[in-house]
Design goal:
The complex is a heterodimer of chains A (326) and B (275).
Chain A: E1 6-7, H1 9-23, E2 27-31, H2 41-46, E3 51-53, H3 58-70, E4 74-80, H4 81-87, H5 89-97, E5 104-108, H6 111-115, H7 127-132, E6 138-140, H8 145-156, E7 162-165, E8 171-172, E9 187-191, E10 196-200, H9 205-217, E11 222-226, E12 229-231, H10 235-245, E13 248-255, H11 260-271, E14 276-281, H12 291-297, H13 302-325
Chain B: H1 3-27, H2 32-37, H3 39-49, E1 64-67, H4 73-83, H5 123-137, E2 143-148, H6 155-166, E3 172-178, E4 181-182, E5 185-186, H7 187-190, H8 196-202, E6 206-211, H9 215-226, E7 233-238, H10 261-271
Helix pairs in contact in B: 1-3, 1-4, 1-10, 3-4, 3-9, 5-6
The chains are: A alpha/beta (326), B alpha/beta (275).
Amino acid sequence: MIQDMIASTRQAFSDELVELASEDSRIVLVCADSVIALRATAFADKYPDRLFDVGIAEQNAVAFSAGLAASGLKPFFGTYAGFITMRACEQIRTFVAYPHLNVKFVGLNGGIYGGEREGVTHQFFEDLGIMRSVPGIEIVVPADAGQVRKATRAIAQREGPVYLRIGSGRESVIFDESMDFEFGKARVLEQHGADASIFTNGPILKRVLQAAQQLSKEGIKTTVVEVHTLKPLDVETISDVLRRTGTAVAVEDHNIIGGLGSAIAEVIAETMPVPLVRIGLQDIYPISGEAESLLDYFGMGVKDIAGAVKKAIMKRDKLNWEKAKK
Amino acid sequence: MTKKNIEHLTEMSRLLRRDVVTMVHHAGDGHPGPALSVADIVTALYFDIMKFDPSRPDWPGRDRLILSKGHSCPTVYAALARLGFFSEEILPSLRSLGSILQGHPDMNKTPGIDMTTGSLGHGIAVGAGMAAASYLTGEKYWVYVITGDGELNEGIVWEAAQTAAHRHLSSLVVFVDHNGFQSDGPLAEVSGLVAIPEKFKVFGWHVQEIDGHNFTEILQATKRAQSERDRPSIIVAHTIKGKGVSFMEGDNSWHKRVPTADELKTALEELGGSQ
């Protein structure tokens, strides 16, 4: 991890989009009074006729995008994550995902990291669960700005709807720029050992890596898996890690219902039964505050993650002991 | 616009109406009232106004039709079958397992359907997107939308009305099938929807009002709409729900109701002919 460097996931998305637009004339941008929020003024300046700002009207923006896509264009629609996935949920489902139209959605303010001081109306921690339940839409949650650039390029090459979750624009740099991004592949990031597995995605990965290092010093050797593509889920890699570690923790900047933790629980239940501890918003509403302190406040601190790993190991050991007793 | 042409359209709409009541009877489910009110507009569009190629339903240069009031789809299915997009033998399979004719239009299952619809209120927004796209892709086509009047209750209609006018989308032509009823009853009683032409006027649209069962008026209004160069057009077509079948006309219980065998027989007798 590169310490103390900040880079904007919003800027990264928009920079990459400008580049993509220069390569493919079918790429257009749809906004809902969100050009500035998306850091997309460079796109607006360079491609004014390829920008469709429909004003504060997200349902309209999605249906409009469906019309663009049905006529041969490749629209990216970006605004705040909840205004896409909640306000325009039905438009996404019925007019984009069901007819499999090539619209990409870019949700800002993902999680508490994304929404932080804004308060609940602008903190979005249900988006992934909502999108995951819609058939035919792919979901990507990159960890930092460099990964957002690569993810943006990767999803532009996919045919059909994709939801890309990004943040506030103040994200820690986690990866070296050379780090690749392979769509659809869960990344086994650090293999301290096989005492437990930690699954995570998005900027909270930073905290997971810190927790894993701390645990390693204490002699608890974990395997960290970054599930940046939440759908389609890389069940094979996840199952493999679950088999090797025998217990799991899921860490997500999202409600614990519907997102990564649920996805891992589904894999566990169907392919590789092991204990699981879920770290995330515990089905409650957050409050305003500075991002890092908020995450600590809501039980997503490095300490909490480390504690969850210990708890997961205890659960596994208890199960093993009970099995042995029989 | 020849007399012969009007006679042909009149005959085609009669056939489509026969198809509609027959299909809904066989399906055991569907919306005959709104499918009949829209029949003349659908006929004029498919059998006179629009350019398309049934052998190439996805031809990029074709005119588009978005049936925003997707529940009226039996009329469009009948038109597409009679135009050769698919066999007329498929029509009785409406709404049944494995049929390409879904309960509401599906652009990926039915050749000739330009947009998946059924959830009300979305036709103008999607149509605006299609019209906007033509300026970038260079394909020249008209985008026709048929919206119900009841679905103008939806907020997205007015979001899209603003967008289409703001972006000067003159290739967008919207018909309102203004039969005066929504599912729960008359518009004015249920939702308070009034002054449709005035509302679109202040949104900056070119607005016309016509008799939606008069082919001469439908064709003339379309021509006038097409001569607009700077703004989208809306044609508020006054229609009768259930038009063509006396016991369905103006009886809103036929919004969604299946004619019995006897009722079907009477309806077909009234519509005349045997095809």
